[in-house]
Design brief:
The complex is a heterotetramer, with 2 copies of chain A (about 350 residues) and 2 copies of chain B (about 325 residues). Chain A has about 350 residues and is α/β, with parallel strands linked by helices. Chain A has 12 helices and 5 strands. In chain A, strands 1-2-3-5-4 form a 5-stranded parallel beta sheet, with helices on both faces. The N and C termini of chain B lie far apart (about 45 Å). Classes of the chains: A alpha/beta (about 350), B alpha/beta (about 325). The structure holds thiamine diphosphate (2 copies) and magnesium ion (2 copies).
Chain lengths: ~350, ~325, ~325, ~350
């Protein structure tokens, strides 16, 4: 796996042979490959719809969109089991969808409705679904990283086979709890997969100005944690790395750290005017390194999927999102009489 | 009933609950062989093993976060912060995370955990090891803040704390650890959010917490010889606060004094007083409603200054007399 | 006088002080090209360069600690915490370190630093980005806690804050950023620890901070048409608190209401009320002393619930009427 | 320099030639060598006296003694300049003395007297002397580590030649601020010398059970900070490492990290019953690895100092301490009327 230092650069998709050899080695069925495409397409549609809704003034509050980063969420979801635990971060829509969240309930929460996952209390930054071991997003950058220690510890104490996947960004890796948590999961050999989604910026801070040494993943050496740094826009490469990591963890060898280099298309959040990065850079990633486009070329070239199927999947994805918006908009606001609920269990 | 110390009472609660419920475990710094800075967990490593008496690196924020993660998966962690002062390293996890999860997640997550923290001055440990910060914790909805003054309360409240589905800050006082009292050997709980009238009296209501309860009781004993009957109320739980018991008492006595060791400005006395004077009981009050609290300074190292920094029995007596004799 | 926004007033103060005193510098997350989450430092990177507009990694505790270290060497750091909620990640450095150094070191160290932090709800940022935590900071001796409500006060107080030799928490309100007011272009300071009577009145004293000052003034305007004259006091500095101005006012009006957005339990209203009813002014009070504050819940995301969680003008009006008309 | 993994093991002192060759290479004069002996002897006497005073009930409060670790403080002090800054930790008596603190004022502070460095407000855990750029000890483990970032930053902004030396223990290296600070001093190339005094235990926690990977110093790699791990009981080796580090820093190359492996003789603090470490281990370090004994042998063997001089220095050191106790005991308590002073400047 490339130890890409985090700089984006043009890359052709590689030959058909290489691709087919790789998916074969990884034992990926056509269905699973098409499933990855479906997941990415759904996330992409969700994010663009979220942006539209926001522009239309239908969203009260902030949001952090992951368009451009779909391959990371998709690649992880194929490598883990449905009952593995997820600790998500603020830019979490993609990971929720990839984990199989109900998009109607997500959208309802996004619009602050009582039908939402959090009864409208949480919004985009706090979506969680405890039924499916989805422990929620976090508004505090890095806030979930040390909580993964406790989840991993409980899994070990309860002698369970599930693992905990903890997602965070390049910026979050500079919070102190990152260090405390890495040391503790390594000491106690806990079943935690740390995934650093390096989209090259914090809010506006270039990762190279924020982290003394790259890749971020090499920090895992300080704790004796095995690591990899992969092209986060190549869904098969992401899956490949995650599969290795998950096998390592599930066989009781303790934590693993994967950094996935990717890029976000939208601004950091509503208030962003993208002054801190050149338009050309954004365009370069969209034109030359888009994870969906890149993967589509492979699937077409290897005749795993044809144009028609692709379109059909996109249309279905869009319909799911549109239906979710209808559901969410029709859903009632929380009743003010319930204001004081949910403070104490 | 056997007489045991405040420290032993807490240990007994932890011990018995760990026997009763295998989901309960302890984590913290030096809580194993060393038994914790105050020896509270002494012997528990041998009894329960390293899996359930988990010694951690010096990483307070992650100690609390680990408790959160484990609680989310149904465990019942009891974390120890060696000194209450260190809770300031953990407040993001405690206040932004643990306290808000049940609410933010629409009631779908519960975080049953206890964080023990000994506070208070008197040991010459100076400014960074002597604070009483319970008033700050009291301002965070979603937290429960318990603050026992006797061995009996300490055991019963600890059992309630561990069995409670919410994040609980269990605030101990290091100077109380050696104080003794009767404690039943068996299992019993004290309800959270219920104050206790530690001594009934007609002339004035004094609300105090942890060590100040003991000091106030001594003063009350003395004053009753002079015919001044002090009603001493121990909230036991600061959040939720049992204002009803306090209101009823003040309605009878017509006078209120709140005593705490925490610094006066921003201290919890203000909460008690505001609850009283904002209520209909206001009409029953005959004298200014006062508080006697720690000075608004960091705790000094020097023993003379350290004593002078927090209310002593003489101060409490003087303040009560002045109020009852209408000199304020 | 030019009309500028609360946000521009703070920027102007930072800008002018950086011109005047080369020891002053800014540090924080995304405060350069991005201009900070609210654009407050917009343009300052170009003007002052990377050495004096220092963008940091996302490491709040060390942002504050860096300010401390630099202050000990005679610099005048002004740190930005993107949201006040994140102060909970820095309280060890702010409360155990910065606030106590002058005292612990026997008066031989000074820590002249400012930490800016926008608090408050209303932007739909939910529980972890909407808190008003000034009451907690107020409990730490050694800190100064400033909390301006107008552009004029914001600039004058910021200049005082930077020139003050103590660690200052400068608490802003994100919803006030766009509010406008007259602000002198030149250099002026507003003394720390001095409240201002924003509107004189004879019937009731209302003490409020930041956005609640604005809301209360609107209500006062309306009520005066009905012959109810409300005296509105803005403490401007919560620590040290100007109780004298408040006491004088209550002695005149005989009624007191404290309004803040922070959660009620453990909120600073308690401090104001305790200071009043514990003083001789107690004898001049004709009605229960009340507070109107944020509900004791985390701030909800949904806009309807979010509004309902904190006092609105209608609530303030209702409470004042009830008090003045003796219905409480 | 040895990358000792932190385990103590017997070692003979090495040949006279090696020693003389080394001090020659380091350009150490006989005076400077004897000075090191004097410093270590003074620290040792201070610590044993502190213990005596405590046992005699003359100390109200806690203390953390550094007997056994004298070579670290001495070695650093010879490598730095008097006006370099010191950020100390709770086990700081030795570093204060080595930096040239007035022992009378230290002792007075230790006994809580008004004549003490902190007017009796701070005690053992907070001794500071701002006149001599001694920024104080800290009761919060790791509390000073991120403050060194600010001191280094100010030195850089003020274009000064001084550096900041920041001392902390093996346990402190697990606090989150350690990570935040390492990243920031490295990013900004600040003149900070981080010294991790690894005495193999926290309060009772064995460093091997607290840190996932050793030596602790290797964590510096994660930030691209050069590091060394040395025998902290060999004062010349400590000096050697510090000299290299200080030269690196003073020539504008940014931070440096040195770990010094050493051992404390006394319990962690007053409440310690040493249940967590075998008596034999303590004896082994005292008998076979004592830094003063070890260095004395060298000085005698190389005829740099003779028995007589050694005794004379010890007697002088003891006298200084005894005088300091007399001074401190005679000094008045702070006046209660000053209780409210020093809260605000
Ligand atoms: C503790 C904390 N500090 C700062 C913020 C404000 N903030 C929100 S997202 C963000 C950038 C995070 O960067 P990264 O971890 O790379 O995630 P990304 O947004 O790039 O996906 C910042 C600074 C926060 N929410 N929490
Ligand atoms: C934040 C914090 N956590 C815990 C403590 C309690 N404590 C004081 S010293 C100590 C051990 C520190 O170990 P180390 O850093 O190795 O220093 P040493 O005492 O070994 O010199 C602990 C846990 C503290 N003072 N501060
Ligand atoms: Mg990022
Ligand atoms: Mg140690």
């Amino acid at each position: 796996m490339s130890k890409d230092n985090g700089k984006g650069s043009e890359k052709d998709i590689g030959s058909r042979e290489q691709f087919e050899e790789r998916v074969k080695r990884l034992g990926m069925s056509d269905d699973s490959l098409i499933g990855l495409y479906r997941t990415m397409s759904t996330v992409r549609h969700f994010e663009y719809m979220a942006d539209k809704l926001y522009a239309a003034g239908k969203v009260h509050g902030t949001m952090h969109l992951s368009a451009g980063q779909e391959a990371v969420a998709a690649g992880i979801s194929l490598a883990v089991k449905p009952d593995d635990y997820l600790i998500n971060h603020h830019r979490g829509h993609g990971h929720f969808i990839a984990k199989g969240a109900d998009i109607n309930l997500m959208m309802a929460e996004f619009l602050g409705k009582d039908a939402g996952y959090n009864h409208g209390r949480g919004g985009s930054m706090h979506i969680a679904d405890f039924q499916s071991n989805n422990l929620g997003a976090n508004g505090i950058v890095g806030g979930g990283i040390p909580q993964a220690v406790g989840v991993g510890l409980a899994l070990k104490m309860q002698k369970r086979k599930e693992i905990c996947v903890c997602i965070f960004g390049d910026g979050a890796a500079n919070e102190g709890v990152f260090h405390e948590a890495m040391n503790m999961v390594a000491l106690w050999k806990l079943p935690v997969l740390y995934v650093c989604e390096n989209n090259k910026y914090g809010m506006s801070m270039d990762v190279e100005r924020a982290s003394a040494k790259l890749p971020i993943a090499q920090r895992a050496d300080a704790y004796g944690i095995p690591w990899a740094c992969v092209d986060g826009n190549d869904v098969v490469e992401v899956y490949d790395a995650m599969k290795t990591a998950v096998e390592h963890i599930r066989s009781g060898n303790g934590p693993y750290f994967v950094e996935a280099i990717t890029y976000r298309y939208f601004g950091h959040s509503k208030s962003d005017r993208n002054l801190y990065r050149p338009k050309e850079e954004i365009e370069d990633w969209k034109q030359n390194r888009d994870p969906i486009m890149h993967f589509t070329k492979h699937l077409l070239q290897s005749e795993i999927m044809d144009e028609g199927q692709a379109q059909e999947i996109d249309v279905q994805a869009e319909q799911i999102i549109v239906k979710a918006v209808e559901f969410a908009e029709a859903a009632p606001e929380p009743d003010v009489s319930t204001l004081m609920e949910y403070v104490y269990a | 009933m056997p007489e045991i110390s405040y420290l032993e009472a807490i240990r007994q609660a932890l011990w018995q609950e760990m026997k009763r419920d295998e989901r309960v475990f302890l984590l913290g710094e030096d809580i194993g062989r060393y038994g914790g800075a105050f020896g509270l967990t002494h012997g528990m490593l041998d009894e329960f093993g390293e899996e359930r008496v988990l010694e951690t690196p010096i990483s307070e924020a992650t100690i609390v976060a680990t408790a959160i993660g484990a609680a989310l998966l149904g465990m019942r962690p009891v974390a120890e912060l060696m000194f209450m002062d260190f809770v300031l390293l953990t407040l993001d996890q405690l206040a932004n995370q643990a306290a808000k999860m049940h609410f933010m997640f629409g009631g779908r997550a519960t975080v049953p955990m206890v964080v023990r923290m000994p506070g208070g001055s008197g040991s010459g440990a100076a400014s960074q090891h002597s604070q009483s910060l319970e008033s700050m914790l009291m301002h965070i909805p979603g937290l429960i803040v318990i603050n026992p003054s006797t061995p009996y309360d300490a055991k019963g409240l600890m059992l309630s704390a561990i069995r409670n589905p919410n994040p609980v800050c269990f605030v101990e006082h290091k100077i109380l650890y050696k104080t003794k009292g009767e404690v039943p050997e068996g299992d019993y709980t004290i309800p959270i959010g219920v104050a206790e009238i530690k001594r009934p009296g007609r002339d004035i209501t004094v609300v105090a917490n942890n060590i100040m309860v003991i000091k106030t009781l001594n003063v009350a004993e003395k004053l009753s010889k002079d015919g001044i009957e002090v009603e001493v109320i121990d909230p036991r739980t600061l959040l939720p606060l049992d204002t009803e018991t306090i209101l009823k008492s003040v309605a009878r006595t017509g006078r209120l004094l709140v005593v705490h060791e925490a610094c006066q400005t921003g201290g919890w006395a203000g909460e008690v007083i505001a609850s009283v004077v904002g209520s209909p009981v206001f009409d029953y009050i005959d004298a200014p409603v006062r508080r006697l609290a720690g000075k608004d300074i960091p705790i000094p190292y020097n023993r003379v200054l350290e004593k002078a920094a927090v209310p002593q029995e003489a101060d409490i007596e003087q303040e009560i007399r002045a109020l009852v004799e209408g000199r304020i």
